[in-house]
Amino acid sequence: MTARPDTAIVLAAGLGKRMRPITDTIPKPLVRIAGKTLLDWGLDSLAAAGVAKAVVNVHYLPEQIVAHVAARRAPKIVISDESDRLLDSAGGIVKALPELGEQPFYILNADTFWIDHGPLNLGRLALAWDAAKMDILLMLADLHQATGHCGSTDFLVAPDGALRRSKGDPAGLIYAGAAIIHPRLFKHASAEPHSLNAYFDKAVAAGRLFGMPMHGHWITVGTPDAIPLAEEAVAGALAEMQ
């Protein structure tokens, strides 16, 4: 049986420009939805899944995030400081690799979160992970279980879970901002600004990008008008579970 990842990185270094004017004074991961910061929604999910250490990368107004996570007991937080230069999603991961180790780890986006319905989605992701045939395993949501998503779909899922780009096909699913990835993918990468999307495409080409549909409700918060919709979705999802 595959061991569950006990390490994660939360990508929290973005500028949050579309969230202005709120992000004029606070970084986007500290925007609150239903009384909890976006960052804490993700960190709480990691803690519930048994993750011992989470790297949080910072760039914009970093001291606020550092101060905010200082009080957390679980998971243990390690800050990866990108104050000097924003490295984008993959560059940020490469910089943090010494803290992430040599085993597969979780990746979470700091501006999306979800309400689990049934077994924890991160636990389900760990159970679905198979390092022998996968380099990346993405958590996926369909359009009907998403709030705040303005775009189209991202991936089509084969019967065995293998993914290919959907190119907007309505039958596709959305990447839900959580994944397990094997660090071997970054073996020859440098900590220069570059996107994780290139690794998704590389894994598709190698037949090693897989996906797992989540259970529950997925929420992304891109603009100030998305906040009340997100809070309504949280209230609705929690009410359904009672």
Automatic annotation (TrEMBL):
Transmembrane segments: none annotated. GO terms for molecular function: nucleotidyltransferase activity. Residues 8-118 form the MobA-like NTP transferase domain. InterPro entries: GlmU-like, MobA-like_NTP_Trfase, Nucleotide-diphossugar_trans. Gene3D superfamilies: Spore Coat Polysaccharide Biosynthesis Protein SpsA, Chain A (3.90.550.10). Keywords: Magnesium, Nucleotidyltransferase, Transferase. It comes from the Bacteria. SUPFAM superfamilies: Nucleotide-diphospho-sugar transferases. It holds the Pfam family NTP_transf_3. This is Mannose-1-phosphate guanylyltransferase. It comes from Rhizobium loti.
